[in-house]
Amino acid sequence: MTATLHKPPPARPGAAPTPLRRRRQALTGWAYATPTALFVLIFFAVPVLLVAQMSVSDWGLFAGNRGLNAPENFVDAVGQRLFWPAVWFTVKYTVITTVLLIVLALGLALLVQEATRWSAFLRTAILVPSALGLASASLLFYALYSPQSSPLGFLGVGSFLGTPDRALWSTVALIVWRFAGFYMLLLLVALQGISADVYEAAEMDGAGRWRTFVSVTLPLLRSALALCTILCVTGSLLAFDQFYILTKGGPDNSTVTIVQLIYNAAFAGANDLGLAAALSIIVLGALLILNAGQFRWLSGKES
Amino acid sequence: MRRMPYYVFTGSLALLFLFPLLWAGFASVSPQGGTAQTDGWGFANYGTLADYQAGIWQYLLNSVIVSGLTVLFTLSVSLLGGYAFARFRFPGKNALFLLTLAILMVPYATLLIPLYVLLNRIGLQNSLLGLALVLTMFQLPFATFMMRISFEAVPIELEEAALVDGCGSVRALLRVLLPAVRPGLITVGLFAFLAAWNDFITPLVLISDADKAPLPLAVANLRQQVMGIIDYGATEAGVVVLALPCILLFLALQRQYIRGFMSGALKG
């Protein structure tokens, strides 16, 4: 991927490197890139600056900007009753989801890697849920879990969302169902990139299946596993749809995530956009630090 | 016979993944207390859905408009942008490309708060057009990256020949390059459609008028219909209407889909 990114652009066909030609090329290039630049500027760069300004301003949903008030929004954000419980819950949910999803996806990838029609059917069956939107999947599980319509009564679970632990695990089950195929696919691509020679060499050295898996397959999957981890951690830390639809943050606010706090601060209750912006900046900062750390860990491992 | 346990195990696994989908389709037409379909099989739940507030046709139309516009904007912007990044040298090129990819680093929620204010200022609040523009922005990192590598994979000789024949860069792009990058466009279009069709939090924040809600939002709202009593039958019917186009598209374009996942592995 990086190879394509940094490949020098091929010389423009027929373009002798005269200054005039080069200027014309630059102008044409910019002309084609202008729509992209406008979109990025108006809908990305300006909002990023605006959210920074809002985070240090007294900014109501209806009242609008009422001037600077730094650092009040940040103090309020961290001081909220639900802030630390939400942080803790989001982290807990992220760890559980990431570990479960990646272990399961790896198992599934190993299971369906053969080039047979049966394996192709299995891959499709496991992948179909990832075609659904997260909101649609959440609505589906909402009906699936409800005592009135649930076909799962035979499991004897009773209420699927009644206690904090049940709500958490029921949501994890939904996410695993929805995303297992996606991560399986990423790992499958990496698995198929491992050449048969490597396995042959391991076999000649007398390595058993388990030993081959641990000392040959896993190390060669390292960058794919790291990519899955980064995607899964980032996605889970920003969880919203599934909890908004399935648990509404309940029972007793036990499943409120950080993004739900942002939404609630802005639109449900507080109507305080400044507070929501401050929370957003905190999330952005945490994510940037985390991703930088993960990238370093990734590149350190690869060298 | 030796592989019997394998087939039983993997077969049940496949069933486990398919079960919720099959159940939703089945439950939406089966008799159930507290829904419109109390005895016998039929489509009464879809009737409830059709009569819900503005009617399902309105919400479907909203979704089709938003998804259509998002696909159109994403395809045109990333086609031109990908061409620029792959074939031209211009000042600020790398900075712009990196800035486009940086959209991935910023959470949706962080951008939606200021976008709500911004769209209000430019008069696009509460509009399907504004929603489609924002959804297009979210698609740009993947789409631009995908189109750039698609253009880079096209041999330069192809374009040279067109230019020698006296085509300008616009005609070279439309006549010669467009067919060559079609697989990339299909992948980008498919992902833009699925993202726009399924997005929930963006319309939740940006659309306040219930009649302008796209389908996922409308089905989620429908649950709190009458005095807090939830009509699960209508919810199931709504899930079927939401999921069916996605599943059909997925089955029809599975190869494009997988290709997108592979090359677009950087997408969140």
UniProtKB/TrEMBL annotation, chain B:
Keywords: Cell membrane, Membrane, Transmembrane, Transmembrane helix, Transport. It comes from the Bacteria. One of its GO terms (cellular component) is plasma membrane. The chain crosses the membrane at residues 60-83, 95-117, 129-151, 172-197, 232-253. InterPro entries: MetI-like (IPR000515), MetI-like_sf (IPR035906). The keyword Endoplasmic reticulum does not apply. CDD domains: TM_PBP2. Residues 60-253 form the ABC transmembrane type-1 domain. The keyword Transmembrane applies. PANTHER family: ABC TRANSPORTER PERMEASE PROTEIN MG189-RELATED-RELATED (PTHR43744), SN-GLYCEROL-3-PHOSPHATE TRANSPORT SYSTEM PERMEASE PROTEIN UGPE (PTHR43744:SF8). Belongs to the binding-protein-dependent transport system permease family. This is Carbohydrate ABC transporter permease. It comes from Actinoplanes aureus.
